[in-house]
Amino acid sequence: MVSISSQELIDLIAAFLWPLTRILGFIAIAPPFGNNGVPVQVKLALGVFLAMIVAPMIDPIQDVDMLSVTGIMIVLQQFIIGLAMGFMVRIVFAGIEMAGEVAGLTMGLGFATFFDPQTRGRSSAISQFLVIITTLVFLSLNVHLVLFETIITSFKSIPISTSLSMGFSFQKLAIWGEEIFKIGLLISLPIVAALLITNIALGILTRAAPQLNIFGIGFPITIGVGFLMLSLILPHLLPPIENIFQHLIDSISLLGGNQDPSYLRSIN
């Protein structure tokens, strides 16, 4: 007959609870997993499944009671780490949304806003279109599987410990915030540049022929040029989006101070 002492049972629960907290923190905020349209039961089941994979790989922490102050601090630390990793994924999608907002405003579609179920706010039509395209690329390239692998591997680069430093670099997380503007500029620059040239041409045309109604012809021309440029850049969006996701995965792996992300697989 197999007998398990109470201390062994507590250690087993702790070895499962602490990685589960980090994983659930990631799933709660990282799109598309953190989308409000995803049922809570699905998120919880996914977190439990991943935690069952991670738990046997983690070295147990001796002499730490889950209900003690130290145990609660470990839970909070793991939750913060998971939220930070999910926040990095959210920044990538926020950069895509920013690109759509900039392109839409430049085209004159600032009034064409819709309810966004993910953020429970309003976003432009171009922004939602680019986010949908990015989500499809995200799933088709199996980036979600690579992210799960990165989260599992993060327990080696950022191990569970009682140290307050956590082996986690908040500086790298703060620097990652600049990616919103970099991604937004990268995606929207062709459309903005084309519309800038269009507006300059319309300005010259108005000066040459003042009798033209610039408000009557300018609005449909800018919208038409914007949609034309959007259709031209769509076939070429895959390489930059793929590079963005690869950079995201490498940056998440470097949060623990590991300068060699070679153990990660490339996106296929």
TrEMBL record:
PANTHER family: FLAGELLAR BIOSYNTHETIC PROTEIN FLIR. Pfam families: Bac_export_1. Keywords: Bacterial flagellum, Cell membrane, Cell projection, Cilium, Flagellum, Membrane, Transmembrane, Transmembrane helix. It is a multi-pass membrane protein. Role in flagellar biosynthesis. InterPro entries: FliR, T3SS_IM_R. The keyword Acetylation does not apply. The keyword Ion transport does not apply. This is Flagellar biosynthetic protein FliR. Belongs to the FliR/MopE/SpaR family. It comes from Undibacterium danionis. It comes from the Bacteria. The chain crosses the membrane at residues 12-34, 40-58, 70-93, 129-152, 183-205, 217-238.
